[in-house]
Design brief:
about 20% strand, globular, Rossmann fold, single chain, about 45% helix, alpha/beta, disordered N terminus
């Protein structure tokens, strides 16, 4: 295994139960990004109506799996997540779909290769050295000509400070609930932001041929990365 399970950010207990209701608070454009995934996949697959094998890394409560597997019913979707409780929620959410498999563990527990992989807000919980290991594992699991859709918390120190100040103001204008300040502090201090140039270097170093940013909302961004 490329990295120890003790370093995995596992969402269990209350975090698993409340994830669906809180993700849209802390990332206001989460649903927009999930919807964009369908468009990116549709444009990059040579023949979208043919069967492909697609991995959702850090599949959590199954939001991506549900939307993607519904949009591309001919393809096989595999979701992998270390949280047993989140996996149970995802299995219940996707139980009506016959093209979804959910595995408890990490990418290194999976067999075979994939035509496409999504990694949405997964590596933001890891230091750069572990991000690098995960990127290498993703590269090894992709078929030649495959692609990754990757989202992370990003920016150099000045960008993070400026964008987080706007982010802070945005949430305070929109929400007023107990724990808001604590949550904002956690977002600011617990995520591992990465400079865009550094992230691009890690992907190119792993062997990927191109890195293209297609989405940004303040401290979060997403890239299309091709092998």
């Amino acid at each position: 295994m490329a990295y120890s399970m003790k370093n995995i950010e596992i969402f269990d207990g209350q975090r698993a139960q409340t994830y669906d209701s809180t993700i849209n608070v802390w990332f206001d454009q989460y649903e927009t990004l999930i919807n964009l995934l369908k468009s990116v996949i549709n444009t990059k697959l040579a023949e979208p109506n043919k069967p492909y094998r697609i991995l959702v890394l850090g599949s959590g409560t199954g939001n991506e799996l549900l939307q993607l597997a519904t949009a591309f019913p001919q393809s096989e979707f595999v979701g992998v997540d270390p949280s047993a409780q989140m996996n149970e929620i995802a299995k219940e959410k996707t139980k009506g779909l016959n093209n979804v498999q959910i595995v408890e563990g990490t990418i290194d527990n999976l067999e075979g290769k994939f035509d496409a992989i999504t990694s949405i807000l997964v590596t933001q919980f890891f230091e750069t050295s572990t991000k690098k290991q995960i990127i290498r594992s993703i590269y090894e699991k992709l078929n030649r000509g495959g692609f990754l859709i990757h989202a992370d918390a990003f920016g150099n120190s000045n960008q993070v400070d400026t964008n987080f100040e706007i982010y802070n103001s945005f949430l305070r204008f929109k929400h007023d609930f107990e724990g808001l300040k604590q949550g904002l502090d956690q977002v600011k201090n617990s995520l591992n932001y990465i400079e865009e140039s550094r992230m691009e270097f890690l992907f190119k170093e792993a062997g990927f041929s191109s890195v293209t940013k297609f989405f940004q909302w303040l401290i979060f961004a997403a890239w299309l990365i091709e092998k």
